[in-house]
Amino acid sequence: MKIFTKRLVIKTSKRFQIINITSEVEKAVKESGVSEGVCLIHLPHATAAVILNEYEPRIVEDYLKWIVETFRPGGGWRHDEIDDNAHAHLASSIIGSGRFIPISRGELVRGTWQEILLVELDGPRDRSVVIQVLGE
Ligand code: ZN
Which residues have beta carbons under 5 A from ligand 1 (an ion)? Predict the structure, then answer.
């Protein structure tokens, strides 16, 4: 079994932002040479998340609206006394900081409307994305 690891750095420019990283992940899968296996996308961060879903301007606005309404930045959280980003820790915990996607015939197995999206919850920052490909 092969294990291939690649680390990207994505610069975010806003406090809340959705960035489509699908093509970078697909490129890593090609570079790995793996044809049957699995791809892990992992953010080594506590205030960002990864989702696997549609990338269309209105739904992107809806994701961010849902995040703000659900996790309420400045909503009286205890952790805000330290660095004013409790909402980002909460959202990252619930949404998740990674995803697994199967690889078959050298391609990520994704639905038509499944893009790999980095969710910035407390930017702007430099975000690392660890892509690990395991397989044959
Ligand atoms: Zn914090």
Answer: 83, 85
